[in-house]
Known about the structure:
Blueprint: E1 9-21, E2 24-34, H1 39-45, H2 47-58, E3 67-80, H3 85-92
Antiparallel strand pairs: 1-2, 1-3
Amino acid sequence: xxxxxxxxxxxxxxxxxxxxxxxxxxxxxxxxxxxxxxxxxxxxxxxxxxxxxxxxxxxxxxxxxxxxxxxxxxxxxxxxxxxxxxxxxxxxxxxx
Length: 96
Protein backbone atom coordinates (compact mmCIF):
# COMPACT_ATOMS: atom_id res chain seq x y z
CA UNK A 1 0.00 0.00 0.00
CA UNK A 2 1.37 3.40 -0.90
CA UNK A 3 1.03 6.51 1.22
CA UNK A 4 -0.55 9.77 0.11
CA UNK A 5 2.65 11.71 0.75
CA UNK A 6 4.50 10.24 -2.24
CA UNK A 7 1.54 10.28 -4.59
CA UNK A 8 1.32 12.32 -7.75
CA UNK A 9 -0.73 15.54 -7.64
CA UNK A 10 -4.08 15.53 -9.44
CA UNK A 11 -4.86 18.67 -11.45
CA UNK A 12 -7.95 20.26 -12.98
CA UNK A 13 -6.73 21.94 -16.16
CA UNK A 14 -8.15 24.14 -18.89
CA UNK A 15 -6.55 23.10 -22.17
CA UNK A 16 -6.72 24.54 -25.68
CA UNK A 17 -7.61 21.77 -28.13
CA UNK A 18 -7.35 21.80 -31.94
CA UNK A 19 -9.34 19.43 -34.16
CA UNK A 20 -10.53 19.09 -37.76
CA UNK A 21 -14.18 19.30 -38.70
CA UNK A 22 -15.47 19.77 -42.25
CA UNK A 23 -11.94 20.32 -43.60
CA UNK A 24 -11.36 23.22 -41.19
CA UNK A 25 -9.11 23.34 -38.16
CA UNK A 26 -11.04 24.55 -35.13
CA UNK A 27 -9.88 25.32 -31.60
CA UNK A 28 -11.77 25.07 -28.35
CA UNK A 29 -11.06 25.41 -24.64
CA UNK A 30 -11.93 22.28 -22.65
CA UNK A 31 -11.33 20.89 -19.16
CA UNK A 32 -9.27 17.84 -18.17
CA UNK A 33 -8.63 16.15 -14.82
CA UNK A 34 -5.33 14.27 -14.77
CA UNK A 35 -2.09 13.59 -12.91
CA UNK A 36 -0.12 14.46 -16.04
CA UNK A 37 0.63 18.18 -16.30
CA UNK A 38 2.62 18.16 -19.54
CA UNK A 39 1.01 18.24 -23.00
CA UNK A 40 3.04 15.33 -24.37
CA UNK A 41 2.44 13.14 -21.29
CA UNK A 42 -1.24 13.95 -21.36
CA UNK A 43 -1.67 12.83 -24.96
CA UNK A 44 0.59 9.82 -24.61
CA UNK A 45 -0.38 8.31 -21.26
CA UNK A 46 -3.87 9.55 -20.34
CA UNK A 47 -6.10 7.50 -22.62
CA UNK A 48 -9.30 8.10 -20.66
CA UNK A 49 -9.04 11.89 -20.91
CA UNK A 50 -8.22 11.72 -24.61
CA UNK A 51 -11.19 9.39 -25.20
CA UNK A 52 -13.50 11.80 -23.35
CA UNK A 53 -12.28 14.77 -25.37
CA UNK A 54 -12.68 12.85 -28.64
CA UNK A 55 -16.17 11.68 -27.70
CA UNK A 56 -17.21 15.18 -26.65
CA UNK A 57 -16.00 16.75 -29.92
CA UNK A 58 -16.84 14.10 -32.51
CA UNK A 59 -19.54 11.99 -30.85
CA UNK A 60 -19.85 8.35 -31.89
CA UNK A 61 -18.19 8.86 -35.26
CA UNK A 62 -16.33 5.82 -36.61
CA UNK A 63 -13.80 7.94 -38.52
CA UNK A 64 -10.19 8.18 -37.40
CA UNK A 65 -10.30 11.69 -35.96
CA UNK A 66 -7.37 13.32 -34.22
CA UNK A 67 -7.22 15.82 -31.40
CA UNK A 68 -4.18 17.98 -30.67
CA UNK A 69 -3.73 19.58 -27.27
CA UNK A 70 -2.05 22.90 -28.01
CA UNK A 71 -1.40 24.21 -24.50
CA UNK A 72 -2.43 24.06 -20.88
CA UNK A 73 -3.94 27.43 -20.01
CA UNK A 74 -4.83 26.97 -16.31
CA UNK A 75 -3.82 24.33 -13.81
CA UNK A 76 -5.45 23.93 -10.38
CA UNK A 77 -4.32 21.42 -7.74
CA UNK A 78 -7.16 19.18 -6.52
CA UNK A 79 -5.66 16.35 -4.51
CA UNK A 80 -2.94 13.71 -4.39
CA UNK A 81 -3.10 10.30 -6.01
CA UNK A 82 -2.17 7.09 -4.21
CA UNK A 83 0.25 6.20 -7.02
CA UNK A 84 3.40 7.99 -8.10
CA UNK A 85 3.67 9.52 -11.56
CA UNK A 86 5.88 6.63 -12.75
CA UNK A 87 3.30 4.09 -11.57
CA UNK A 88 0.62 5.97 -13.52
CA UNK A 89 2.80 5.88 -16.65
CA UNK A 90 3.39 2.12 -16.31
CA UNK A 91 -0.30 1.53 -15.65
CA UNK A 92 -1.38 3.42 -18.79
CA UNK A 93 1.43 2.22 -21.07
CA UNK A 94 2.29 -1.47 -20.45
CA UNK A 95 5.05 -1.46 -23.11
CA UNK A 96 7.21 0.84 -20.98
